[in-house]
Amino acid sequence: MSHSQALWFLAPGEALSLEIGPGARELAVAKGRVWLTRQGRVQTPAEDEWLEAGQSVALAAGSRVVLEAWPQAAFQLLVPPAACKFRTPPSKSAA
Known about the structure:
The chain is mainly β.
């Protein structure tokens, strides 16, 4: 898979709603600018933030976000190493 195949693209004014998971993710903006809104809860209001190319933000598993391009954007949803379950390679027995 090439780097460009791993990018999500948002056209001018386009919005996208995403539910994060399974596991945490990191949203990294590659091009343009993104307006990100994190879904609020009863005790916590929704939170907005601007992200520009080169910036990233951690997103918790199970969270919901809405992204809007200003004016257009490309981004990646990355799986941080801490969210992966690493398996130990099988040991080689001596013959």
